[in-house]
Amino acid sequence: MFKKFVCTAAFIALTSVASQALADGHQPGKGVTVQPARATWNTGFFQEALVRKGLEELGYKVKKPKDLQNPIFYKTVSLGDVDYWTNGWFPNHDGQLPKGFYEKAEKAGYVVKAGGLQGYLVSKKHVEQFGINSLDDFKRDEVKKAFDKNGDGKADLTACPPGWGCEQVIAHHMKVYDLDDHINPVKAAYEAGMASALAEYKDGEPVFFYTWAPNWTIFKLKPGTDVMWINVPETMPKESQMAGKDRMEVSGIEGAVSDPVKLGFVVSDIQIVANKKFMADNPAAKKFFEVFTLPLSDINEQNTRMNEGEKSQKDVEKHASEWIAKNQATWKGWLDAARKAAM
Hints:
The protein has 14 helices and 14 strands.
C-alpha cells in the first residue's frame, strides 16, 4: 500500500513538473545553435520564417538561413553543414538527392501535403459554357475562337518564359497531344502575362493559363470559384517526369474538373528536410517539424502580399508574426507538443 502511494505521488509530481514546464514556456533548445537553409524561390520564404520563429520560442538560437540551390542544399544537409530547410518538394526533388542521402538526412512531416501543384486552369464560367474537361477541348473551333486573343486562329495560353522547367513540359504537351495547331503558348514575362489574364478575367473574358502552387495566382483566381484545374488527355510523362509518374493523377484537388484529375505535371508534397543527427539530438525540433503544417491558401495569400510589393525580409517576418497572432491555438499546440517530446 505504501509503495503504491509513493508511485502515485511520484507520478503526480512528474505530471505537475511537466505541466509547469509547459506553462512556463520551457525552452528545450536553450544553448543549441541551429543553421537553417532556404530555397532560392521567394514563395518558400514564409514557411521558413514561421519554423524559425517556432524554434526560437523553443529556446534555439537560429542563424540567418543560407539561400541554397536545391542540389547544394541536399548535399550540404547530408554533410551536416546546415541542419534543415522547409522547402523540400517530393517526388519533384528526388532526382536531385546525392547518393546515400537517406543515411544522413530525412523528411519530417508535411508543410503542405500535395501542395506542390502545377497545371492548367481555365475560367470556370467558360469551362461550364463550353464543357471543357481537358486540353483536347482546345481543338474544337468554338473553344479556340473564344480563347484566341491575337486572331491567329489558336487559343492563347499564358505559359512559361523561355528557360523555365515548365516551358519544356508545356512544349512536350503540345507535341504529344498534337496541340501545336490549336494552342499558342505565350512565353512573355510570367507576371505581366498573369496581370493581363487577371484583368481579362475581371472584364468577363475567357482566361487560360499555366500556374503552380503555392502562388499568388490562385489566391487572386481561386480554383473552384473563379477558375478550374483541367486535365491533360492522358498521362504521358516526359523522361524527366518518369520518377514521379504515379503522382501525375491525383484526387482531392479543390477546383478540379474531375476527381481524380490528370494534371500533366508531378504533384509534390512540400516537406521539411533535416539532418538525421540534428533530429536525434533535438527531439523538440523534430516534433515541431513533424506537426508544423499550413493551409495552402494561407501560403497563397502571403505570396500575394509579396507579389503586391511586401517582399522585403522585414515584410516576410511581419507576415509570419501576423499569422502566429491569428492562429494562437494552433501555434501553442505545436510548441506544447515539441516541449513534451523533449521531456
